[in-house]
Automatic annotation (TrEMBL):
Belongs to the aldehyde dehydrogenase family. Pfam families: Aldedh. This is aldehyde dehydrogenase (NAD(+)). Keywords: NAD, Oxidoreductase. One of its GO terms (molecular function) is aldehyde dehydrogenase (NAD+) activity. It is an enzyme of class 1 (oxidoreductase). SUPFAM superfamilies: ALDH-like. The gene is aldHT_4.
Length: 354
């Protein structure tokens, strides 16, 4: 298992729990950005194993390292299943490498998640849902809302409400209960965010927020004000996932156009619609609607997926974790025939008498 920095315990836990229930040993390579979390989880497991006893030695093993460590794990013929969570770029390397040795992979990759806001939407509910999904974990969540597709009749009202809410966001130490927006993981993430905002401006966008925050208090950390970008269209930068709190806002005229915009990105993880029109909601959930692995109605793109099959389509990788049937991915499938007679029954009634 290879996990990313942003949910260093959750991804491990829902893979690890299913794997050991299915009788598998687990080798885990946590992100090189969060090695201490990996060491802590391994220590907790070893403590629990010692307490309950009769646990096979080596059931859980930890690999701390960088890219070369991950490559060794991916290319090892003794690892039947690689569960990898990370960027689409990583998935493009992991998937083919595992396939070359006819191994199996479970890929949880990028998301460029959109919320459609229709004329009948409850805007108070929509603002709350969008706010959490767009700025929670400082936009460093695979199900973060990154695009708003709002009907022209509600676009400006929604945009103003979001800007007002953004101005009131408490940014600071994530260990404090009053904080709603913590820091970006590192300088590279901050630089990527600034480059994306510059590109959005060059492509006709109007940027609100996005500046570095709390630099005087935390000079070595990268806190930012979450950004809203009013876009004239779904341009190249909008179609690209930037792992930071940037929310692109676009308009639409008819619902078919909104769904087309929603689906016209390479990623297909999570999606949502805010609407009190039953026909719109049903269309969004149907084969003619969202092409994502997660499709929600009147709730945001993140926060409601626990317990359901988690994963997406297209460049999101196609893998599914959690949910009622995810356990199948951690087991070897076999068809068995046991003959309890002294006869030799053959399939389709074939006779082969000598």
């Amino acid at each position: 298992m290879i996990s990313a920095f942003n949910f260093p315990v959750a991804v491990w836990s829902w893979n690890f729990a299913l794997a050991i229930v299915c009788g598998d040993a687990v080798i885990w390579k946590p992100s090189e950005k969060t090695p201490l979390t990996g060491l802590a989880c391994q220590a907790l497991f070893e403590r629990a194993a010692q307490k309950f006893g009769d646990v096979p030695q080596g059931l859980s093993q930890l690999l701390i390292g960088g890219r070369d460590t991950g490559e060794a794990l991916v290319n090892h013929s003794g690892v039947a299943l690689i569960s990898a969570t990370g960027s689409t770029r990583m998935g493009r390397e992991v998937g083919p490498a595992v396939a070359r040795r006819f191994g199996r992979s479970l890929l949880e990759l990028g998301g460029n998640n959109a919320v459609i806001v229709t004329p009948s939407a409850d805007l108070d509910l929509a603002v709350r849902g969008i706010l959490f999904a767009a700025v929670g974990t400082a936009g460093q969540r695979c199900t973060t809302t990154r695009r708003i597709i709002a009907h022209h009749s509600v676009r400006q009202a929604l945009l103003q409400r979001l800007k007002t809410a953004y101005q009131a966001l408490p940014i600071g130490n994530p260990l404090l209960s009053a904080t709603l927006v913590g820091p970006l993981i590192d300088k590279a993430s901050f630089d990527a965010m600034q480059q994306a905002l510059q590109a959005a401006q060059a492509q006709g966008g109007s940027v609100f927020g996005g500046e570095r925050a709390l630099q005087d208090l935390f000079p070595d950390a990268y806190y930012v004000e979450p950004a809203i970008v009013d876009m004239p269209a779904q341009t190249e930068i909008v179609r690209h996932e930037t792992f930071a709190p940037i929310l692109y806002v676009m308009g639409y005229e008819n619902f078919a156009e909104a769904i087309a915009l929603q689906n016209a990105v390479p990623q297909g993880l999570s999606s949502a619609v805010f609407s009190n029109d039953l026909r719109e909601a049903e269309t969004f959930l149907s084969v003619a609607g969202s092409d994502c692995g997660i499709a929600n109605v009147n709730i945001g793109t993140s926060g409601a997926e626990i317990g359901g099959a988690f994963g997406g389509e297209k460049e999101t990788g196609g893998g599914r974790e959690s949910g009622s049937d995810a356990w199948r991915g951690y087991m070897r499938r076999a068809t068995n025939t046991v003959n309890y007679s002294t006869e030799l029954p053959l399939a389709q009634g074939v006779r082969f008498d000598v």
